[in-house]
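TODO from last week: model Tetraspanin.
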Amino acid sequence: MKRTPFQTSEYYPGAGGDTEISCCVKYTVFGFNVIFWVIGFLMLLIGLWAQFEKNNPYSQLNRLSKFYLDPALLLTIIGAFTFIIGFSGCVGALRENTSFLALYSTLLGLLLLAEMIIVVLAFVSKDWIETELKTRLDDMVILYRDDPDLQSLIDWMQVDWKCCGINRPDDWDMNIYFNKSAANLKSEEAGGVPFSCCIDYHDVNKQLPNYACGHNVRQMKLPQMSAIIYLEGCLPKLQQWLNNNFVYVGTCIFVVAIIQFLGICFAQDLKSDIFAQRAKWSRR
């Protein structure tokens, strides 16, 4: 039976043997994006599960303006974006669909452009970024008790980095629970800091954490306070880490950018092959 021009290798892989589409490029794009598809899907599921576990739909709407302070919501957004990129790349490559390949290239291009803008701003407007970062991180302290995921993130950061507050322990005065004026409300945490600021937050037998180790500690004198909690803020610790590991951070950013650029190139090359194959079919 005579084949029509539309009965091509896309649907009959063994037919003809004359194709403009490179199998190497096709399955490289497909295999590369399977990883992003799976990772994005898992991140999306974990983020959604965490959101519905801790909040109702009404409180979700109130948090959208400060989504960057909600680890679960941020994970959901990143997971959804990664899932869309991986899905469009997989379907576009496997089914030789130029629409999905165009979506894949566009999303990767926008992501690469955003990363370039952030890197340029980091060098050109360093002072402005540092001011904005301090403002945004202050909100983390203010909302410490309002979000269990954010609370766990801050506690992990202070324990692992051996720091307290954003710039100093007195930053915890911005939180209504740790503010010194909360003593009028008979709050045990007034004038204190979270347990994660303590140098050793375990009890005497070193088994259970002592969550009261930071109570009233900011009302002590400096020598006494320095023996109980960390006095250095977490932002200076982060800046110090970035300065010490600038080469490694820059190398990672460069490698990620190259991978994204190659992904765009492969997708565009595959699109060109598909269009060339279609042109050959139409001539037949």
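Done. The radius of gyration is 26 Å.
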